[in-house]
Amino acid sequence: YTRYWLDAEDQFTIFVALIQIVAAIFLPIWTIASGKIGKKGVYLAGASIWIVTLIGLYFIQPGQANLLMVASAFAGIGVSVAYLIPWSMVPDTIEHNELETGERQEGVFYGMFVFLQKLGLAAGLTFSNFALEAAGYVNAETIDGVQQFVEQPESVLSTLRIIVSLAPAVILALSIPIALMYPITRQRYDDIQAALAERKGL
């Protein structure tokens, strides 16, 4: 996307660094917010910001690297929620499961969580590669150890834009109704903690 569409490959590291820096800055902000509006509310807010940002990526034109820098900053806000909220929901789920079954199964839950993350990553890369190949992607040539710039057909440029913008935006949008069904609110979590403490005689 940055190489063939924006012609800004030399700034790629800056874009990625900006996303990570903003994400790190917003982690404590979202943590505080989750105590006020709940994890579900924080996820919905962060995912919405990220979705709007991703859709915006589709409309950025070649030579508008400054716009991508702004988009990277906003993407970092959404990325920080993806770092924070799903992982913070796992312990809640483990304790809910303990209350229901009488057993703690941290290994099962965390193992499944990491497995699904890796499966999603593999599926995304596989889908991207197939989509680009179908669009007619031209592999770059390496001459004297230096990778050469290759002009890609319009179909590949359109596919690249969709892969980095509309496709992930749709996937994130699909996660919102799932998040809305998440049943463990702050009050429910406190009730679970109290019930477990009572069961253990604490």
Seen as an oligomer or otherwise, the chain set is single chain
Which stretches are poorly predicted, pLDDT < 50 over at least 5 residues? none
Fraction of helical residues: over 70%
Q: Radius of gyration from the CA trace?
A: 21 Å
Number of helices: 5
Cα-to-Cα separation, first versus last residue:
56 Å
Proportion of β residues? under 5%
The major sheet is characterized as:
2 strands, antiparallel
Secondary structure elements and pairings:
Layout lengths: L11 H48 L5 H37 L4 H30 L6 E2 L2 E2 L6 H27 L5 H14 L3
Antiparallel strand pairs: 1-2
Note down, in words, how this protein is organized.
The protein has 202 residues and is mainly alpha-helical. The protein has five helices and two strands. It has helices at residues 12-59, 65-101, 106-135, 154-180, 186-199; strands spanning 142-143, 146-147. Strands 1-2 form a two-stranded antiparallel ribbon. The longest helix has 48 residues, at 12-59. The protein is elongated.
